[in-house]
Amino acid sequence: METERIILRPWRELDAESLFKYASDPELGPRAGWLPHKSVEESREIIRTVFSTEGMWAVELRETHEAIGCVGYLPSSSSNLAIEENQCEVGYWIARPYWGMGICTEALGLVVDYCLEVKGFSVLWGSYFPENPASGRVMEKCGFTDTGREVLCPNLDVGSNRPVRVMRLP
Predict the structure, then answer these.
(1) Strand 87-94 vs strand 123-128: parallel, antiparallel, or unpaired?
(2) 91 with 115: CB under 8 angstroms?
(3) pLDDT number for residue 155
(4) Between 123 and which of 8, 87, 92, 139 could a Cys-Cys bridge form, CB atoms 3.0 to 4.6 Å apart?
């Protein structure tokens, strides 16, 4: 899946240094519910264990061929939200140097199309911390609407005690 600026592709262990460069940023992980990475080896292990699952892609900047973020979906069995079997939860993050450029919206748009057209999910869900409204705007630009609900996600590494705002498509 690709646009003029990005390519969504499987993560590779060779991406570990790039992942660490961005995922060690103390501003990034906590906005998405995870701790900043502490080493290249930790980033490599995340690629092996978390990012190598079906439905998870590296966001590669076409110009540099560098992985600058992650986007994907979780089936109901892995979701942070209580959702039905034919539904999924989407998630994403983009490295701070690329915030505000629309890259995250492009990446999520590709995943939305894939989830609806290829996987046939009936409903897509997403969530964000209210103190990170830019994440909510990304979903809105991709057609999600605010459900008005806030829930806790107790399995998050960071923020399990803070509510997330729940979004839905359609």
Answers:
(1) parallel
(2) no
(3) 87
(4) 87
